[in-house]
């Protein structure tokens, strides 16, 4: 009998996850609740409901699911945050998820610095050079380095838990733009290296990380977009995809591929960034650079549902697949919007 119940729980949980992927949120919510009542993992069910609440912008309900996960789990010997007040404590913020996630949640640094006695940000090695240029970041270390071997903290918190810790609401997202400030000397050097611009410059990223290739746009779909007149397209793509054969109009700068600080400095030079859901998007948002983000149908929770803007990043415009896998429609919409954007830019200069 126990095996039958376990199998039933797994089936209901699997159905809930499938409904969530299809963005049938009401039905998915009911299935996650049913699965938990039948004995499925609290962590799995609460995590599914958390995504649903975040997609809807109901942050308070999501933080309640986070609380249930914390209180239902085992004690963590590494002293990870359990919901306690961190005022007056030495805090270690650990950036254990993606690079884009870390960039998004650096926005909480000023609030945390005011609250805690001290704060250390432990970041992936790729971000160590960039981290000090986020507002409020006084000290950053990386894996196995200073700050981890010596226990100079009272509590650790994963950076993606910061919105929950501050009980953030959709209407009070902190420092939603311009919270990344780059050294002027570097910006001037990048500007000089790219040369003078005679028309608007547009940075382009079409491939996300290999761990989720469904976020990437097939490069052949971009050929028509790259024929748009009145602007310069610049290749911001890292990794093997940077060798994509494209019209001569797609310009390149090696600075984009020489580290994240350099990449951010290049992004700051663009009038517009057109990108998939990846690190470049978050860097543009943190810098306050105008960016258009091309999203898959089942887009990540942070982009919510049915919106063409983002409360996390006011400089963003979102372009969503109307159906799973339909990148052609997204690129067509971007191309049409770009024509309008260029006309508006030209009118602004004429005025």
Description:
The protein has 351 residues and is of the alpha/beta class. The protein has 3 domains: 68 residues, Serine Threonine Protein Phosphatase 5, Tetratricopeptide repeat; 83 residues, Rossmann fold; 161 residues, Rossmann fold, CATH 3.40.50.2000. 38% of the residues lie in helices and 13% in strands. It has 11 helices and 10 strands. A 6-stranded parallel beta sheet has the order 7-6-5-8-9-10. Strands 3-2-1-4 form a 4-stranded parallel beta sheet, with no helix packed on it. Helix 1 packs parallel to helix 3, helix 3 runs antiparallel to helix 4 and helix 5 runs parallel beside helix 10.
For the record, the count of structural domains works out to 3
Between the first and last Cα atoms, what is the distance in angstroms? 77 Å
Q: What is the CATH first-level class name of the largest domain?
A: Alpha Beta
What is the overall pLDDT average? 89
Class by alpha and beta content: alpha/beta
- The percentage helix is 25-40%
Counting copies of identical and different chains, the oligomeric state is: single chain
Strand order of the largest sheet: 7-6-5-8-9-10
The name of the CATH architecture of the largest domain is 3-Layer(aba) Sandwich
What is the name of the CATH superfamily of the largest domain?
Answer: Glycogen Phosphorylase B
Number of helices: 11
């Amino acid at each position: 009998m126990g095996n039958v119940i376990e199998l039933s729980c797994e089936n209901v949980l699997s159905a809930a996850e499938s409904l969530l992927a299809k963005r049938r949120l009401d039905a998915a919510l009911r299935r996650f609740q049913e699965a938990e009542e039948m004995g499925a993992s609290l962590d799995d069910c609460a995590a599914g409901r958390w995504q649903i609440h975040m997609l809807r912008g109901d942050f308070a309900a999501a933080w309640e699911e986070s609380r249930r996960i914390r209180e239902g789990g085992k004690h963590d010997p590494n002293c990870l945050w359990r919901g306690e007040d961190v005022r007056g404590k030495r805090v270690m913020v650990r950036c254990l998820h993606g690079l884009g996630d870390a960039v998004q949640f650096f926005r909480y640094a000023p609030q945390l610095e005011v609250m805690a006695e001290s704060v250390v940000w432990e970041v992936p090695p790729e971000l160590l050079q960039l981290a000090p240029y986020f507002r409020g970041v006084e000290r950053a270390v990386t894996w196995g380095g200073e700050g981890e071997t010596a226990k100079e903290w009272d509590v650790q918190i994963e950076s993606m838990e910061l919105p929950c810790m501050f009980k953030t609401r959709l209407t009070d997202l902190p420092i939603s733009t311009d919270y990344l400030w780059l050294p002027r000397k570097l910006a001037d050097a990048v500007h000089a290296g790219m040369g003078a611009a005679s028309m608007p410059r547009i940075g382009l990223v079409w491939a996300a990380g290999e761990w989720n290739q469904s976020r990437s746009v097939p490069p052949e779909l971009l050929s028509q977009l790259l024929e748009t007149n009145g602007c310069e397209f610049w290749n911001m793509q890292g990794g093997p995809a940077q060798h994509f054969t494209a019209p001569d109009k797609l310009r390149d700068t090696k600075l984009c591929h020489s580290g994240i600080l350099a990449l951010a400095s290049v992004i700051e030079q663009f009038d517009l960034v057109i990108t998939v859901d990846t690190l470049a998007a978050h860097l543009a948002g943190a810098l306050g650079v105008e960016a258009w983000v091309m999203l898959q149908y089942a887009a990540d929770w942070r982009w919510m549902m049915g919106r063409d803007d983002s409360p996390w990043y006011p400089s963003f415009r979102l372009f969503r697949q109307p159906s799973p896998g339909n990148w052609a429609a997204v690129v067509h919409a971007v191309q049409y919007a770009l024509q309008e954007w260029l006309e508006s830019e030209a009118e602004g200069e004429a005025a």
